[in-house]
């Protein structure tokens, strides 16, 4: 390097000046040499642009029935909306769901994954365009002169360089399409997380409300059992009842105490679950629970089975993942074909001689032997696509099954509620008559014990059926997509 740096200035200084005719001939020859690679570059660019973009085909969905099997009459029902929880008529429920959607760590993770996928999509799309870099060099060299001695000088240069790969076989375009489809899948995944989170929060809220009401009912039944225990004890002291009667009533009273403690424990567990869903500790969550008897689930319009394809974010996510897999297969196929890359640079040297230099180069890279790596990559992407296609169909079938199960559950609960209403009325009448007859001495304790158990069981089952009805409505809202649409932003 030092020798070359030493002789280049001397040669430039000793070269004879060119005549104007020679200078024009040399410039014309340079232009002809530039024109040929430029024409070749233009032809390659036209060939790359001539390949039309592929329109992604919608995957084939499994055949769906024309109507729901367990669809109830929905003449007065409304289609699910985005804020479907408002249909229950409790502002506290809406407040809890909004807290969960805002502060839940699961929601924050889904949003972060979406930002990551969008950034990766932008990176893949940037590969379709040339890259441009600036370069600044500085060097100090020492060379020996022909007359003797040495000469030291500093060379500085400023340049630009660019690189570009021609997308002849749509490898880069396919990779960009795959990244864009993956970003869409992440957006749909965020929406699916939001739907699941809102449904889980609503479930925890309703469970806490009903369990608290059941705990209050258990306390009331316990107080009634204690009152009757005092009555039986007084009758034993008066000789009108046996110690066995006292023991039986004491057993029932202790069972009520155990059940009341169990319901209070389960209420605290659901409160803790609700706090975690909203991104808080149990001590930070302030709850004002409503009377569940005032919460009436709204009628829901279920639409048609085919509508689930555009109303479920998990189905849209599976479809976007399948589109990304198709694009990856195309990219893997294109990777087995030759690649054409172009590069250009422009450099200006400021010392010791100012002379702009340029270069234009093109390269062809064709795979010859890679031990089957590219072929294995293509087979891998095809296997991933087949798995995602099966997952897409499975997601649709599961969605249809969830809707059918939710509607069947609601229909069964309505039938149970009608029969249980008659059961409760009969149990309450039996309780009043048995207690009055026992006080009058016209009935034994066993009839009163049975009446107590039947009454409490009927009251508790009424609350459980109401909880199941509310939960069934939440499940149906979730199964129908919760008002989500594929065209949502």
TrEMBL record:
It comes from Zoogloea dura. NCBIfam families: outer_NodT. It is a lipid-anchor. GO terms for cellular component: plasma membrane. One of its GO terms (molecular function) is efflux transmembrane transporter activity. Pfam families: OEP (PF02321). It is found in: Cell membrane. SUPFAM superfamilies: Outer membrane efflux proteins (OEP). Belongs to the outer membrane factor (OMF) (TC 1.B.17) family. Its main location: membrane. Keywords: Lipoprotein, Membrane, Palmitate, Transmembrane, Transmembrane beta strand. This is Efflux transporter outer membrane subunit.
